[in-house]
Amino acid sequence: MFGSSLGGGLGATQTQPAINPFASSSNKPSPFGSLGLGLQSQQQPQGSSIFGVNTQQPQTASPFGASTFGQPQQNPFSGLIQQPQQQPQPQQAGSLFGQKSVPEQIEQLYDKWNPASSTCAFQHYFYNYVGPEKAPFYRPTPREDEKKWEEALSRKPEAGWVPVIAIGFQELFTRIVTQMQILNAYNTRLHEINGCLEGMLQKHDLLITIRAMDAKRRHIALGQRCLALATKVQVLRNRGYAMGGDEEDLKKKLIELEKGVADPALAGRGEEIWARMVGIRERSKLLQEEMARMGKKTEGNGLNEDVLKQAEKVLSDYAEQISHLKKELAKIQQEFKAWEGE
After folding, report:
1. Phi/psi-derived region of residue 302, left when phi > 0, alpha when psi is between -120 and 50, beta in every other case
2. Per the record, where are the segments of Polar residues compositional bias (predicted)?
3. What gap in Å lies between CA 150 and CA 49, rounded to an integer?
4. FRET partner for 117 with CA separation of 20 to 30 A, picked from 23, 178, 218, 302?
5. Is 260 exposed, middle or buried (0-12, 13-18, 19+ CB in 10 A)?
6. What is the pLDDT of residue 300?
């Protein structure tokens, strides 16, 4: 197992196939060749290991075979005991199934979470309004992808909006804080505007409304004075001219009203109406007293039906007389006011 002669040593060149209990004499690989011991026959073709490392060996191999990393060894026990400082760095290559290595996957995952990387997964385009006149002057920053920026620009809501990228949670938080500050500033400004409006309303109620009412009152007074002046001017203008039929009728009515007001019989008529009203009041008192006495006599038996009809008739007559007197009084007052207005 350790060679044909002691003089050859453990690392001597073999001229015959070595008798290896773990290797086969055929060209097929050993079933234990992938377990990390690296035991192969001399006729086995050289190639890559399962980890993608070159395992080419010199022809002067030890009885225990080459190391896992294919490095020539002078020590017969170097295949079992490896020195870390003597091993070369493994080359970066794909695995057996074409996947990336673990360090590459870790680096790729780190880039996905790193906001400074262009491949960060936490990217989103927001839109800021700058106005249609300034929007054509905005271009993507060096850290942005121009194609993605153009695509976001094509999806802008309206003219005057430009896309702004936010990468990572920190930039998103900064944007939210900025929006909250702007919103608070707008709210403060709205409160100031509301305060100014309330002050203007109070000033309007205290000053302008009062002045408007005073101006309206003065306008009515001036209108009445202008109407009176126009009437006098018209009378002076038409003095000496012949009046028309309507004017003659109006003149006759006015003369009759003036005579009626100046007639001494009007005062007597008013005194007569007043005396009749006093008499009606006294008669109503007598009727009430008489009804009260009759009510005491007929208490428990009720009033006679004839008495009730007679009282109802008397009261209706008095009501008609009172209504007639009211109409006469209203007519006299109306005529008096018309005469006084002239």
Report:
1. left
2. 12-28, 53-62, 68-81
3. 48
4. 178
5. middle
6. 52
For the four alpha carbons of 200, 202, 207 and 212, in that order, the dihedral sign comes to positive
For the ranges 11-25, 188-202, 277-291, 328-342, the maximum mean pLDDT occurs at 188-202
Residue 64: count other Cβ atoms within 10 Å of its Cβ: 21
Measured CA to CA, the distance from residue 296 to residue 52 in angstroms comes to 137
Does residue 288 carry a pLDDT above 70? Answer: yes
Q: Are residues 81 and 6 in the same domain?
A: yes
Asked if residue 252 has pLDDT above 70, the reply is yes
Residue 2 pLDDT level (bands cut at 50, 70, 90): very low
**One domain, residues 59 and 117:** no
Q: What's the structural domain count of the chain?
A: 3
pLDDT at site 197: 92
79/73 Cα distance (integer angstroms): 8
70 with 139, same domain? no
Q: Is 65 left (phi over 0), alpha (psi -120 to 50) or beta?
A: left
At residue 312, what is the residue type? Answer: E
Domain that holds residue 114: 102-173
Give the integer Cα–Cα distance in Å for 316 and 163. 94
Q: Examine residue 209 and state whether it is found in any structural domain, yes or no.
A: no
Q: Check pLDDT > 50 for residue 183.
A: yes
* Domain assignment present for 275: yes
Spell out the residues 6+ positions from residue 138 whose beta carbon is closer than 8 angstroms to its own: 130, 162
Average pLDDT of the residues in 226-243: 78
Q: Report whether pLDDT(120) > 90.
A: no
Q: Tell me if 219 is assigned to some domain.
A: no
Which of residues 25, 56, 88 is at a domain's end? 88
167 in the same domain as 114: yes
Residue 93 located in a structural domain: no
- pTM over 0.85? The answer is no
Q: What is residue 44's predicted lDDT score, i.e. its pLDDT?
A: 42
